[in-house]
Amino acid sequence: METVLSIAFRLFTSYNKKNKVFVIKFIVRKVQMSVKDKSVWNIVRIGGFIMLKKINDFLAGLPMTIVAGVFLLLDLIPHLAEEFGREPVRLAFLPFDPAWAAIVISGLPLLYLAIWRIIYNPGISKISSALLICIAMFAAVAVGDLFAAGEVVFIMAVGALLEEATTDRAKKGLKKLINLAPAKGRRLTDGKEEMIPAEEIRQGDLLRILPGETIPVDGIIVRGETSVDQSVMTGESLPVDKETGEEVFCGTINRFGSIDISATKVGEDSSLQKLIRMVQEAENKQAPMQRIADRVASWLVPVALLIAILSYVFTGNIVTAVTVLVVFCPCALVLATPTAIMAAIGQATKHGVIIKSGEALEKMGKVDTIAFDKTGTLTYGCLDVSDIISFDKTISEVKLLSLAASAEARSEHPLGKAIVAYAKTKGVLLIEANAFRMTAGKGISAETGGFRLLCGNEKFFAENRIVIDSGVRSELERLRTEGKASILVAADQKCIGVIALSDVLRPEAKEMISRLSDMNTRTVLLTGDNQKTAGYFAQQAGISDVRAELLPEEKVKSIENLQAENHKVCMIGDGVNDAPALKTADVSVAMGSMGSDIAVEAADVALMSEDISKITYLKRLSNATVHTIKVSITLSMCINFAAIVLSLMEVLTPTTGALVHNAGSCFVVLIAALLYDRKFDTKLPE
Fold this sequence. Notes:
The chain is of the alpha+beta class. Helix content is 54%, strand content 17%.
């Protein structure tokens, strides 16, 4: 027997969009199968809900809302004629008051929503703004003000459409990502090409990507060179040059050369699909301000009813009571937060900043302390040759580099590889080395260029009885102070030089730290590196609070200590060791382009490029979002209060009250919509 949910799904998909009817035969057939099966009646009930939902969506859509507006305008004509002392215009061609059309079209969806919340919402949230509007609508009908009743629900429908338009616009980044998900890929099998659906591509498959095509999965280039448009992933405006051995991402576009790639991450594991999931999660989460606004709205409804009743008791005027009900609805209060949050998330997505939740965005606006990891965050996370120092006047720096790189050419050590890579980029000649030998953790020896070379640390030199004089030791100490790793080079038992390697500070880091300081945001460096290295890079970046030689649990403790001092802390990292600290912080940001999957999953925000200057953009956007929410809520409350006073003074009628109040709601939504297109600095000045 099929489950209720699977049957309901079949029922839902049996809906025919062309003639707007359900295939009822399906339900009848299921009833005939087993009258005793209680799930059949559940199917009928679910089918009824689906039908009601379809009718509701149809009436609440833009076309029917326009129809309601036209009928409301027709009903307004007689009112305007009476207002200007003219003979009332009678619309004899209509057998009913035009306002009824607006009441039915815009009122039924609102009534559906109010009843749905009463049945399914828990506790006090059963009482909603939709319920208050429905009460106001029925009250206006009862006193004979059909235009006011129609206007209340029509303006609410317009407000709902504005909110939907705002959120749809904010979701353009997500829709773009989903649309960019490639449908097919060109797989190479035994030298033959075949087009296959993207979901059939498996890890290790060899794929060919032609110029102009979208890359269907994450992979490593095994043949060819090209330039790839990675804007969808990183926000970078210019294509990135790629060659053999480099990684490419799903959804990015191959611009120039033909390349063959080996698939590494396919299906739901690909970068694009992970990006889509993160954005979807962000849109499904509510911010604390939104939840607070919902709770306030629930409590305001009974207060509105109480004031309306009291106004009727003391004035004896039912119209005044109805007007209070109309103007008291907290619609603007409820709309303020979700529209601002969605607009901000949409804007951030455009610039390669993925915010996973509205809660993270709101908290980021309250952050006063940002803690940075060093390697891979403030720095590039890869070693590069920084100093080449010769101690022998007969050997130039270029010659020293050539000898060292030639000796290290067969080394598997990261420092040796870095020296060889640097020499190749500089076009330095490498000489074939013989008698290569590696001593783990100490150094290597080789014969090249007519010399017996040794490259390694001080301990390695001591074991080989190579003298290191005071001048060399002084130079080594200076390099250590600057946080650099050193490789000593000896030729024929004599120390001839030293090559220093260092991680490289991101060029935008110093300006970024300065801008955060201008925003009254404290910066802290949390790193596992030694104190001297951490201090050197912190000084370069402009960070005064340095906490070095930390294990992952000690990073967590440092963040907890900052929180204990009543600081709102944001942690920024990229490695697996940063994941616990990212989870502990109030808000966390991961370097998504090169960070570990664990760090990205643990973080609230992911930067999809290596441009750390976007931290200042994120902070400015978050501050602006929180400010927008506060301004919108304050504005909505002020409008409500003023409208209530004017209603009690009998200045406003249900008709004019509805205009004032709902115009305020629409105004709040428009303020949030402007946040999507607001210009923020996404790049630091060069």
